[in-house]
Amino acid sequence: MAATSSTPLLKDELDIVIPTIRNLDFLEMWRPFFQPYHLIIVQDGDPAKVIKVPEGFDYELYNRNDVNRILGPKASCISFKDSACRCFGYMVSKKKYIYTIDDDCFVAKDPSGKDINALEQHIKNLLSPSTPFFFNTLYDPYRDGADFVRGYPFSLREGAPTAVSHGLWLNIPDYDAPTQLVKPRERNNRYVDAVLTIPKGTLFPMCGMNLAFDRELIGPAMYFGLMGDGQPIGRYDDMWAGWCTKVITDHLSLGIKTGLPYIWHSKASNPFVNLKKEYNGIFWQEELIPFFQSVALPKDATTVQKCYLELAKQVKAKLGKVDGYFLKLADAMVTWIEAWDELNPPKGAITTTTKVPAPKSK
Q: What highest taxon heads this organism's lineage (predicted)?
């Protein structure tokens, strides 16, 4: 599975999605790994601002005007002034796989000092099975030099398809605002050479800054919610997507891996600004986690879309009592699926929706 410069893994089957408000100079560091791939850049904030992309990359750039033009009234489901806008890139992609990364993330080095090709490791994670139904104490049994331990049921050794690869970060940890405030100088210097499958029935805090997924398997569940401008919450966009995705992957017998690869997270965001964004979420999550832990999807929910619409229904019925925001979020979840299906009709289906492509630059 080793990549070569002439044939990068999944070159024509993967898009890299980047949300940004600034020039993408950080791509220079990633050039050896990203240049063969197609980029989808989702510009947040003022659409009149010109975002500069280094020469030599194949990319599409979408701003808020493009979102409004392509989705029309359904554009209301895409967050504004928040990195949750990245999920628009998932929707317009036509590739099987997605890798998404933040623009303050750089190439990390492994303990030997070698640059880590994060994208290659994500691809390896996605192309090998997961083990959500029985934990292997040597972690990922499909890695070179590993296998299933004694006592692991042979009937489960084929594993389950991997829907999500959740990568980690060196340097600035992914902390919430209260933890940032009490540990302002803490850095993550601990490189753990491990990949493991998150067990069925276990939720996890998904971070969107170094994340890959199989768009065909789980794409419609990767909605990063209503966050940012005009909303009473921020910085829970990837968390929301992670909780919804985990419930659905458990229901559909798919897997999620976490661990390698690492990226270098270069910049800590302002903890006081973060606290304003997170304030409601810190309280609400005490209601949200039990909700997701107890949610049950019906047997006839056999597709990601059906699962997600059922989740939206239960969010409205149960979390609407927590705050009116969740009634609005549940409606946006339905709108998201409607927009997804318009832009991604089933193969062979006739569609009357015409998508005007965004300007493309090479």
A: Eukaryota
Distance CA 214, CA 99 (A): 9
128: left (phi over 0), alpha (psi -120 to 50) or beta: beta
Joined tokens for residue 34: 């990203």
User: How many angstroms separate the CA atoms of 292 and 287, rounded?
Assistant: 9
- The terminus-to-terminus CA distance of the chain in angstroms comes to 28
Find where tokens 């927590």 sit: 322
Question: Over the range 307-325, which residues count as b (16 or more CB within 10 Å of their CB) and which as e?
Answer: bbbbbbebbbebbbebbeb
Alpha carbon 350 to its chain's center: 29
Residue-wise pLDDT tens digits, 222-243: 999 999 999 999 999 999 999 9
pTM of the model: 0.94
E strands present in 10-161:
14-20, 38-43, 58-62, 97-101, 105-106
What pLDDT is attached to residue 267? 87
Give per-residue pLDDT as tens, 272-316.
999 999 999 999 999 999 999 999 999 999 999 999 999 999 999
The DSSP code for 319 is I
